[in-house]
């Protein structure tokens, strides 16, 4: 049986080629949406998880476009993705 497709970047396994669908923010941090968009997490942009921290809610190293960033799990949950 195949694994379910990730709905957010936080759920994506390393190496999977994805596309950003949308960026949203939690109620307690509405500024995250514009901050993530400023970093390049925009609808239609290519993205992939390069590495995951050792804990399930740890940091992720992600590539969006030609840039590489470390995101907290909570921030990565704000980025909805689909397969590229």
UniProtKB/TrEMBL annotation:
Keywords: Iron. It comes from the Bacteria. It holds the Pfam family FeoA. Residues 7-83 form the Ferrous iron transporter FeoA-like domain. This is Ferrous iron transport protein A. It comes from Pelomonas dachongensis.
């Amino acid at each position: 049986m195949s694994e379910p497709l990730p709905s957010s970047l936080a759920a994506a396994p390393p190496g999977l080629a994805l596309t950003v669908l949308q960026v949203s923010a939690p109620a307690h941090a509405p500024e995250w949406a514009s901050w993530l968009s400023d970093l390049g997490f925009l609808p239609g942009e290519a993205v992939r998880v390069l590495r995951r921290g050792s804990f399930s809610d740890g940091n992720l190293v992600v590539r969006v476009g030609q840039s590489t960033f470390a995101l907290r799990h909570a921030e990565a949950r704000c980025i909805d993705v689909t397969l590229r």
